[in-house]
């Protein structure tokens, strides 16, 4: 098993499209002739020129521009007999600070963000693969693509953050979801008591969620005895 991963972008960490999102759209894309059941990675907010970081230690296996991912860096992570591969896509052309064969450490800057490849705007697309995962039935995705969401346990940027993403159960009878992390921002929806959400980023008492209503919620943690 690969160790806990550091985020591939610097705080504040904003996930603009989670793993598995929009299956109706991604079904038209395939790997090895097998349609994707959903978004095959995680999209992180990253502006043109922002630093992109390695999520774990490994050896650089690819620095090139091709396909839908555009300019990309790939890193192999050997963990015993299992080999993971992290992919960082849509980077700034020729911005890589590493070369094929270079060893890298977790958190090391490897390139800069941009909007190369099949993309509508600058961001980082991150994909994680695990050798043999598809054949073993460990993932419904082709090409050994796995869901990396739960592996990101780096401390967040909020004062009360411990590990993100984080699962949270709503205790309020009805909680407002706002467009921005401020009390006067427009309300875009509501969460009812008992709803389960994943907080993608936290700051100053607010948490960003992507589902069931994308937006920001005001949080106050209730801890058990």
Which descriptors apply to this entry?
mainly beta, 2 domains, SH3 type barrels, 225 residues, Glucose Permease (Domain IIA)
Please outline the helices and strands:
Blueprint: E1 15-17, H1 23-26, E2 30-31, E3 34-35, E4 42-44, E5 51-53, E6 58-65, E7 71-79, E8 82-89, E9 103-104, E10 109-112, E11 124-130, H2 133-136, E12 145-146, E13 166-169, E14 174-178, E15 187-192, E16 196-203, E17 206-209, E18 215-218
Antiparallel strand pairs: 1-4, 2-3, 4-11, 5-10, 6-7, 6-9, 7-8, 8-11, 11-12, 13-16, 14-15, 16-17, 17-18
What is the SS-derived class? mainly beta
CATH architecture of the largest domain: Distorted Sandwich
**Overall structural domain count:** 2
CATH topology of the largest domain: Glucose Permease (Domain IIA)
Helical percentage: under 10%
The CATH homologous superfamily name of the largest domain equals: Glucose Permease (Domain IIA)
Roughly how many Å is the radius of gyration? 18 Å
Query: CATH first level of the largest domain: which class?
Result: Mainly Beta
- Head-to-tail CA distance between termini: 32 Å
What is the tally of beta strands?
Answer: 18
Please give the largest β-sheet.
8 strands, antiparallel
Indicate the overall shape: globular
- What fraction strand? 35-45%
Number of helical regions? 2
Task: State the low-pLDDT regions, or none.
Answer: 154-164
Mean pLDDT: 86
Listing every helix as H and every strand as E from the N terminus to the C terminus, the arrangement reads EHEEEEEEEEEEHEEEEEEE
């Amino acid at each position: 098993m690969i160790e806990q991963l550091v985020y591939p972008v610097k705080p504040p960490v904003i996930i603009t499209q989670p793993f598995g999102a929009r299956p109706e759209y991604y079904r038209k894309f395939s790997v090895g002739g097998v349609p994707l059941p959903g978004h095959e990675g995680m999209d992180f907010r990253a502006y043109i020129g922002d630093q992109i970081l390695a999520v774990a230690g490994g050896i650089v296996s690819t620095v090139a521009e091709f396909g839908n991912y555009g300019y990309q860096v790939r890193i192999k992570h050997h963990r015993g007999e299992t080999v993971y591969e992290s992919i960082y896509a849509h980077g700034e052309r020729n911005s890589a600070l590493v070369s094929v064969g270079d060893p890298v450490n977790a958190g090391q800057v490897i390139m800069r963000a941009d909007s190369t490849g099949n993309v509508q705007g600058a961001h980082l697309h991150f994909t994680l693969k695990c050798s043999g995962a598809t054949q073993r039935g460990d993932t419904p995705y082709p090409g050994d693509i796995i869901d990396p969401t739960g592996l990101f346990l780096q401390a967040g940027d909020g004062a009360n953050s411990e590990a993100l993403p984080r699962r949270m159960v709503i205790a309020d009878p009805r909680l407002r979801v706002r467009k921005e992390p401020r009390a006067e921002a427009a309300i875009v929806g509501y969460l009812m008591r008992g709803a389960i959400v994943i907080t993608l980023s936290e700051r100053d008492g607010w948490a960003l969620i992507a589902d069931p209503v994308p937006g920001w919620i005001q949080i106050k943690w209730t801890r058990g005895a």
